[in-house]
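Q: What would this complex look like in 3D?
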Amino acid sequence: MANFFPRWTNWLPLKMTIIGIVIVCGVTGATWYYDTPKYTRVGYQPIQPVPFPHDIHVTQLGMDCRYCHSFVDVAAHSNLPNTQTCMACHQQVQKDNPKLEPVRASWKTGQPIEWVQLHRTPDYVFYNHSAHVNRGISCAVCHGQVNHMPVVYHAKPHSMAWCLECHRHPENFLRPNDQVFNLDWKPDDVKPAEFVAKYGQPKEVKDDWSKKEKLSQQEIGQTLKERWNINPPVTCQGCHR
Amino acid sequence: MADAITAPDVVRAEASDSIESKLKRVPLVLNRRNFRWITDRISGVVEEPAPRWWWVTFAITSLTAAFGLFCLGYQISTGVGTWGLNHPVGWAWDITNFVFWIGIGHAGTLISAILFLLRQKWRTSINRAAEAMTLFAVICAAIFPGVHVGRVWMAWYLAPLPNNYGIWPNFRSPLLWDVFAVSTYFTVSVLFWYTGLIPDLATLRDRATSKIKKFFYGIFAVGWRGSNRHWRHYEMAYLLLAGISTPLVLSVHSVVSFDFATSILPTWHTTIFPPYFVAGAIFGGFAMVLTLLIPARAIYKLQDIITIQHIDKMAKIILLTGSFVAYAYAMEFFVAWYSGNHYERFAFANRVLGPYWWYWWVGMLFCNCLSPQLFWFRWCRRNIYVVYFVSMCVNAGMWFERFIIIVGGLHRDFLPSSWGMFYPTWVDIWTFIGTFGIFTSLFLLFIRYLPMIAMSEVKIVLPEADPHFQSAEQHHPVAAGGKERT
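A: Here is my prediction, written as structure tokens for the whole assembly.
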């Protein structure tokens, strides 16, 4: 049997190789993009029973995060406010607003409002809010600029790689303790003289940072990391206890 | 320079009168078999319908394999607790079986790569089957470390893949080196084996009688036509792959030994482990080659190709590597005594006199050290039954050796309060037996569908393949050649 395979099959292996490479690269790229928390979680904005506008409450009215999330700096878990907290103001303010009907219903019946949870930490992860917010990690680092969100959405991927990004280099995220709940804080807001007077500067730095025009995030972070002796766990047991 | 007298000329002139020039080598293929006979006999194994024994054996081995796979499934779905592992013996049959199987593979690579580079022509009749054995042994070996991690679905953590967890394999861990050593070994072995198969696959394609066979052998023969160009490329590729495989013979089992040697456990923490393990691997591997080929040559009447000379040579390698191993065992005891380390001395005394004493006396001493010493005698090396007995002893002995190293090292902890024993469960036992089922099933499929002897290579070592070959009348084969069949 001569020429069992027709002539066109000569190019078949090459074609199959090229198609194979394209498929493998395509599937890898698509998985990378579409099937990671950067895509699957970021932007998640469920419809809440009450479209609570964080922007009005925080930016416009100047409320502190801890007015509602009152245990975030003392407990592992950051609580949602109960209806009574809402009604403390809304008995007088906007008391007939139809959007607040579920809050009033909850007030009457005693049934809590069923908010839709956005940020779910898996049960095999140990996470302590107070450990973070008391050591210069702002709410905004993990939750984004909630103070500008008309309805809250998932702003950061919350993948493990994302956690480790900060645990491996905390200096890129630390800020002065009194600015943790100021979600609009920028490194440029820091006055070097005041900052250095309060927190000092890294030991190995020779020049005087208090004379500087501005401090960068890394300079601020490095100072605070050293001053507070920040050494976040990067071993498995650090979070998976 | 053309008429200058060079050293080789002098040697040749001196040798021409010497006794060496009058001695003829024993031919590698007996009974003056020609090209056609070799093609017919070896292709015939594949082309004729499967004999009844094949079906019976395959039914048994594949059922065993299936039960082994069931045990793996049961273990994965239930948890590693189905194995007898517990404190202090956290590694037992799983890692024993892994080292056992991966060691077996080494003989195939030694035969196919090192003996090729050393121009040992006798390798041609055994290399194909030995390489197949390597692949199947590595497949069996890879099961155990893969499964012993407990959560098999996490096994991809071993691969350096960028991921959402921001984690990366620990390249300082010998367990990770293992992953790379074994996967490299498997990849290179497959490539080497397949490259060698191409001319023979083309032979089977050309002889095929049905379209389906022609199609599949044709695909895998990748258009081989045996042209001069094909042969030149093929031989260069084969040589390069032999060069790439050669370091693997030494490196893979060295890396396996690092799993133990880099720990701090007495009997594990020793610098002699890499050479000791490599010698043991080749030792055990040759025993397995003999275990497979002695029945195969008898069943398929291949005694003219896999001659008694081949068995003799393999027996010599078993004797050599077995003596290395015996030396290493002795040296371990010497080092334990010479170190003056209390724990080291205790561990070795415990090996001989402790609860696992008979593993040492039977497995390591009798099977591995004493039984190969029979091969000092030519009669023993050429007696099929003795060779088979010794190779079976070595197969068992090498398993015992790994068990003693692993469980023997673990069951007596530094704290006497932590001492314990290992008792295998039925899942342990049947998973191990199941890998034998997988191994033999794959080997049976191999001899059924692929030429188990490298036809093209055996033909190259025939006298007729020599361009200076003279006609049959002038050629005087060794008279004894025909009688050497066993």
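A: To summarize the key features: Chain A has a mean pLDDT of 93. Residues 12-40 of chain A form one domain.
Q: Very helpful, thank you.
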